[in-house]
Write the structure tokens for this entry.
Amino acid sequence: MAIRTTRRRRRLLTAGSFVVAALLGVQGTAFAVDNLPPDQPVAADLHTDSRACATGDDRAYVAQAPRLSAVLRDTEADNTPQSDLVKPEFEAWWQDSGGTERRLTYNESIALPPGTPVYWRLPSEIPPNTVVSWRVRANDGRATSPWSDEGSGTVCEFVIDDQAPEKPVISSPEYPEPGPGEVQWTDGVGVYGHFTFASPSNDVVEYRYDFLGGGAGTVRPDRIGGPAAVSYLPQEARPERVVVRAFDRAGRSTESTYYFYVKAGRAPGAQWKLSDTAGSTTAAPQAGPAARAGSGVTFGASGPAGTDLTSVARLDGTSNGFLTPGTSVVDTRKTFAVGGWVRPDGADRDMTIVSQDAGTEPGFTLGSRTRGGEPVWSFAFGGAQVSGGHPTTGEWAHVLGLYDAETGQTRLYVNGQESGTEQRATAVESAGDFQIGRARGKAGYRDRWQGEIGDVRIYDRVVVAKEAAELAHREPELRGHWSLEAAEDGASPELYDGAPLKLGAGAKIHRGPDYSVCIPEIDPDCPQVPYALVGDGDLELDGQTGYAATDEPVVDTRDSFTIGVVVRLADSEPEGPMTVLSQGGAHGDAFKLRYFPSTYTWQLVVSDGDREEATETIVGENTLPDEAQRLVVVYDDETDQIKLWVNGYNHPDATATFRHSWQSTGGLQIGRGHTGNGWGEYLHGSVDEVHAFAGVLDTTSINQLGGGIEPCLCG
């Protein structure tokens, strides 16, 4: 009698093909048991150490005798697992120096469930620099699988490489390494260095490098054992070094260190500050040729505050409003950067800051463009146009365009920050005249600038991000510091003889205890006097009519400013909002700093105009004002952001974009703000150490506010 099986190869068993037949149970019933071999191991399940099974040029290279691993499987014909346990049988072989084959075998004594990884750690007698082959098969105790290299299978190979590669040799034509004890400063920030790594060993497969100034990575040679090269753009003038490790196929490595010295970036190849005396017809250069000025150019206009530009040129937007040296100053086939300070009279049309002629078209343009009804700054060159930032009528901006020939990318910096998305350009030659305030067109010059322009610079190198920020930096200017220590004739003085804060009804200067008179711990009749917030005095406000104010605006709310204050509320649960600081116009506040009790939030409120129904932008931070709070209001016109700092921290929720600033006409108010019924939101509490600055303070300076000393304006 034959029994049909359900094993891997279904067939009728005959007396010659079955292994075991037994009669069990009821008389006359026969059961045949058929054991099929385990599966042939496949290459995907085989590894030399952690490296995949491979042969030839792809074989594994290891630093010492490796551990071989495999996953053995035993499945039915329908891919369901069998329950048999399996043991591995490994073989490894090679030819010794005399050409004789050497072979090692390893049979595991413990059987494991199919699918479990199995291992063989080879002995140390395996010779180095010799191709070793290996294979494996599975044994379930009754049958074995085919070897992993039989039929359509594959053998696995490895080589033990017990020698580390020789140290890499590093070289650079731009930044040569000085001799021992020597210092050689070499050009420079913004100039690429090309570094070649070459180990004398012929088995190096990769180099890993790390520059001190930033920039680490891995580079592979075009062929095993060949050299590799990387480019490095220095960001700072400083002693530099690069550490390079050469790796062979076995993962062994050696290391070399290369020292070089980076100079400061080259000065502009052409520059015009445009600070010439009124009536001049030519702009004197700081570098490069002089620039002829058209009759629509007027020198002597005010430059941007916080810079060393005492004056600039004003262009009237007509056909005579331009400057040109009458020659080319930019080699557009190579890396270049162009930029300057500008203040547009309007933002409703295309206007050019600088360009260079290329026949009847400009080779490149940097300026203001209207896109989708909204003005943007733009740099166009070689088929690429990078746009970002928003020109605002009457506001200063530093704008710089860059073409990096090494990477082929164009970038745009607005007020020291990269703006827009860099784009790839195809370099084109433009050997025509350089232009300030206009761009060439088929019908003549067009897109004329109307407004101020100053400090136009052209570089023949990359201007790195740190330099772009430095070019656009505007030093904050102290506009007032009121320590609120005393009052005379109803006013508390500004420390540097500036405008005083005049005290209204319900406001008074509180003085802390004077221990030169008496000490409460010693004299029981000595009155208990609370300490001032900072120093010897502070301003107390009654929450009903109390306030202090200047007669004129302290900061230009249309431009960047920073105002800090220390405040302590008299009530932990006030009935309604209370304003600490504000400055506005006849109907509303350009900004207002207040406490909003229903949400326990310090709020910075800015509006888009001097009207009662103006749209407000509000940012804030939740806090319980049980103690004195150090609050700082920041408006950054360059980045179009408002920020509120609370006790030295600017929470992400306390930052927002704001593009609709306006120039307030009223004085700085302490303790009140505009409401629908006039003045209101009076503060019940104490105020101290009011600082006001034109410009944006850095984080360190912001954290110094309220400490009773002037912050360091460290730039």
User: Anything to note?
Assistant: Helices lie at 465-471, 699-704. The radius of gyration is 40 Å. Residues 1-33 have pLDDT under 50 and may be disordered.
